[in-house]
Amino acid sequence: MVTAPAVSGAIASPVASGTEPGRTPPGIENLGKPGYYAVKPGDTLVRIALESGQNWRDIVRWNNLADANVIEVGQVLRVVPPATAVAAARPAEPLPRPAVPGGPAAPPATTPPATTPPAAGATAAASPAAAPPATTAAGDDDIRWAWPASGPVVASFDEGRTKGLSIGGRAGDPVVAAADGRVVYAGSGLRGYGNLVIVKHNNTFLTAYAHNQALLVKEDQMVRRGQKIAEMGSTDADRVQLHFEIRRQGRPVDPARLLPAR
To answer: What is the C-alpha to C-alpha distance for residues 49 and 68, in angstroms, rounded to an integer?
Structure first.
């Protein structure tokens, strides 16, 4: 098992590494069961959480991971709440995290500390287990959406490729929350997204805001619709833009169908 190295200016991110020869990957008894996911090469907890529509911190708790910076190829993770977890609509309480250079010190840990999530690759292949459709709570679809940036749409939604909209603009233009919610990720640990903010709005919806030049919010922070959360940039992109995704139970949907007419 390999722990991801710290990224300059950011917290270390969990990486899927190969399982030691002759050792059974953790959770293998759940392989193929609904609601479980088999870790693939290159997976990170952030990516797994985004694809399953969950908070990576919840995945840490549901699987009793001692170190959020270490996952293995072939390891089988629960990606839906346990039957007893009836509070899934409310993102979990913050986990202790290491101090960031120049930032506040981490609070004392009363449970095994879990640092921030994934970023690099792995070595062996494994198949994901299909998760059952999550139950949509009453009112989860009743969200008042707002455009996250004022610029023109420069690339339309394509689930097989872009998974969202690309909105043009200038470096430093404001990026705002598309709806009320809680920040479940703010960092640069997801390859291809650059400086990224993910906001979870309820059991059903989350939004992602990528390629920013600056992030103005932190994990576990509550944000309001229209609140500035980042500044537009070009990190991990070939031009200044905001890549914006809306995910319904982890699946990308066309934001243009939900956002108000301009």
So the answer is: 13
Q: Would you state the pLDDT for residue 159?
A: 80
Q: Taking a C-beta distance cutoff of 8 angstroms, is the pair 15, 118 a contact?
A: yes
Residue 155's SS3 state is: strand
Parallel, antiparallel, or unpaired: how do β-strands 174-176 and 181-187 relate? unpaired
Provide CB contacts within 8 A for 8, sequence distance 6+: none
Q: What is the pLDDT of residue 220?
A: 95
Residues 6 or more apart in contact with residue 91 via CB below 8 angstroms: 55, 57, 58, 182, 184, 200, 220
Same domain, 55 and 97: yes
Same structural domain for residues 202 and 160? yes
> Is residue 141 domain-resident?
no
d(CA 218, CA 186): 6
Q: Which amino acid is at 30?
A: N
Degrees (nearest 5) of the Cα angle 175, 88, 63? Answer: 105
Lowest mean pLDDT among 76-90, 101-115, 201-215: 101-115
pLDDT in tens, 147-157: 999 999 999 99
Mean pLDDT over residues 22-29, rounded?
Answer: 86
Indicate the SS3 state at residue 61.
Answer: helix
Per-residue model confidence (pLDDT) at position 139: 72
Spatial distance between the Cα atoms of 131 and 167, rounded to a whole number of angstroms: 31
Residues 6+ apart with CB under 8 A from 22: none
Q: pTM of the prediction?
A: 0.73
User: Within this chain, do residues 9 and 111 fall inside the same structural domain, yes or no?
Assistant: yes
User: Tokens at residue 87, please?
Assistant: 């509070």
* Token code pair at residue 19: 């399982």
